[in-house]
Design goal:
The chain has 179 residues and is of the alpha+beta class. It contains three helices and 15 strands.
Length: 179
């Protein structure tokens, strides 16, 4: 797998992919690999933290969650199942970006990638952590809001009908769970 990942990293850099075309890759399962993403967003291989940020970013770019609920690192030729404790990614910050006359919330992930919060990339509450917001991402992935990102969301909320609500373009999210 290491050779395939090195080649993929070169291709991604040459083509300047924002995201590799995972939807086109459907190799057979190669097996399980001892990679684990901890609940705090740290990646481990054989129990050791992966310290190379470029490698974590590469792995995150080829990560998807399939309908069976498992997470896989996928290349055109290989598919490796990994372990994820809670959410594979973390929202580290949220900023407001003006697009014309509309304000859009942009989430920054622990991989450096940014995602606009909208109907496709919507917020939801993580019940196992006391309803901290998390963000739906492409390829079946999700990102839990870090404490600073959560505080930023609270700061950005405006009251609508007595409920603190976030607005991003035409997407709205009540910042408290609704019964």
């Amino acid at each position: 797998m290491a050779d395939a990942l090195e080649e993929l990293e070169k291709q991604v850099k040459r083509r300047n992919f924002d995201s590799p075309p995972l939807h086109l890759w459907h190799p057979a399962l190669s097996g399980d690999i001892p990679i684990r993403i901890a609940a705090d967003g740290r990646w481990y291989h054989d129990g050791t933290v992966i310290r190379r940020e470029s490698l974590v970013r590469l792995f995150a770019s080829i990560l998807r969650r399939e309908e069976d609920g498992h997470y896989y690192l996928v290349t055109p030729a290989e598919k490796w199942r990994i372990s994820v404790e809670l959410h594979p990614l973390i929202v580290t910050d949220v900023s407001v970006v003006e697009e014309g006359e509309t304000a859009v919330l942009r989430a920054t992930l622990n991989t450096g990638k940014t995602v606009d919060i909208d109907a496709r990339h919507s917020l939801f509450f993580e019940p196992t952590l006391g309803d901290i917001p998390a963000l739906k991402l492409d390829n079946g992935l999700t990102a839990l809001c870090s404490r600073p990102a959560w505080y930023r969301l609270v700061d950005l909320a405006e009251e609508r009908d007595g409920v603190p609500t976030l607005s991003s373009g035409d997407y709205h999210f009540a910042l408290v769970p609704q019964p």
